[in-house]
Structure formats: structure tokens, C-alpha cells
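Suppose you are handed only these lines of text.
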Amino acid sequence: MLEVRDIQRSYGKNKVLKGISFDARPGDQIAIIGRNGSGKSTFLRILAGIDKPASGTISFWGSRADKHKSVFRQFTGYLPQDNPLLDELSVQDNISLWSGRGGRPSQELITEFSLDDILKMKVSQLSGGMKRRVAIACACVSNPPVLIMDEPTASLDIYFKKEIRTWMKTFRQGNGIIIVATHDELEMNDSTKVYSMENGVLRHT
Ligand SMILES: Nc1ncnc2c1ncn2[C@@H]1O[C@H](COP(=O)(O)OP(=O)(O)OP(=O)(O)O)[C@@H](O)[C@H]1O
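From them, the structure of the protein bound to adenosine-5'-triphosphate can be written out as follows.
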């Protein structure tokens, strides 16, 4: 269970988030849509613990995230909008870095994301779609119950889009929660709730 209450954030005089509140339950996919610059990425960074709100609270299964940094690490995987991978390292080294534990990624993760053939390749040698798939694998490496995804399929071809959407459905069927910022109608249609970010607040559509 994820509870978000009255999150506010400004950049200087620019009040970007004016009070964001919602709940999400296992199996939910919450889509956040909105115009460019409306604050979706700002909110997702706060949800992932990368950035701090000026006020408001986030709780994962009753644990207040602002009280303990480890709550974010335990409960969330985060896929940022831009490629978060280190291009000069191999796929395997990127995933190991993300896991924080070193060593080889689990066979389950390798199979799930079809990584076997590319494990030793440098990220710089991969296609954009494959980089996105590896970035999602990195976000999932510690098997988090909540996945925060910032435009996961933007710029992907229709085949990758379909595979990633199917994977997202499977993740939710396993009781995962997905919070996704998107401009993609199919991702909106897949979602259990769609909110629009307008003037710093979320409106149910
Ligand atoms: N680091 C920053 N410093 C100052 N202003 C920022 C910073 N990051 C974002 N902003 C501002 O906050 C507002 C929201 O930006 P944000 O990236 O969250 O929007 P978005 O909805 O994700 O946009 P897009 O759909 O284009 O990805 C914008 O006005 C942006 O200029």
C-alpha cells in the first residue's frame, strides 16, 4: 500500500507541486499524464526518494519514507526519464552496481529480460530499446514491490513497447504497484487509474 499526502515542491518562485495526494494498492497501475513541464518527473523523483518535497508525506505499507532513507530503497525501483546506465560499463556491471551487492545478476532477471546474449556487452553498443530494457532490469534488480517509471516506452519501437507493456502487466499481476508518467494512450488504457497533473495538483480523469 502506497499513501501519498499533500506533496509540495517549488523551484525558486515556481510552485511545481501544490499538494499531491493519492493511494495505490497492490496490482494498481497509476498513470500520471500532463503537459510537458507540468511536474510529472519532479513528483516521480520525490516518490523515488531522489528529491525531497518541501512538505507532505509518503508511506509504504505504513512506513513513513521521510523518516528512513532505507524505506525508499526497500520498497521502490525507479526508472528515470533519461538513460541512467553507465555507457562504458557492461550490462552485467551496470546491473551489479544497481543491486548494490556486486556479483552476477540472478538467472531469473537474466531470463525475464532476455539479457543472456548481451550481458558482456558495453551499454554503448546496445540499441536504444535494449538500453531501456536493461534500465528497467536495473530498476527491478532488488525485486521492489513499487515500480516508478518515467515514460518507460517513449522512443521505443512497437515491438519493444508491446513487450514492456506485457512485462508491466505481469509485474502487477504479481501484486506489484506501478506509478507511470506517460504520454502513451495504450499505457493509459492499461492503467487502473489515470491522473492528470494540472496546475500542481492531480486530477482524476
Ligand atoms: N532542477 C530544476 N531546477 C529548476 N526548475 C526545474 C528543475 N527541474 C524541473 N524544473 C521545472 O519544474 C517544472 C516541472 O518539470 P518536470 O520535468 O517535472 O515536468 P514534466 O511534467 O516531467 O515534463 P515532461 O513531460 O516534459 O517530461 C518545469 O517548469 C521545469 O522547468
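What can we learn from it? Residues 158-173 form the longest helix (16 residues). The pocket of adenosine-5'-triphosphate is lined by residues 11, 14, 16, 34, 36-42, 81 (CB under 6 Å).
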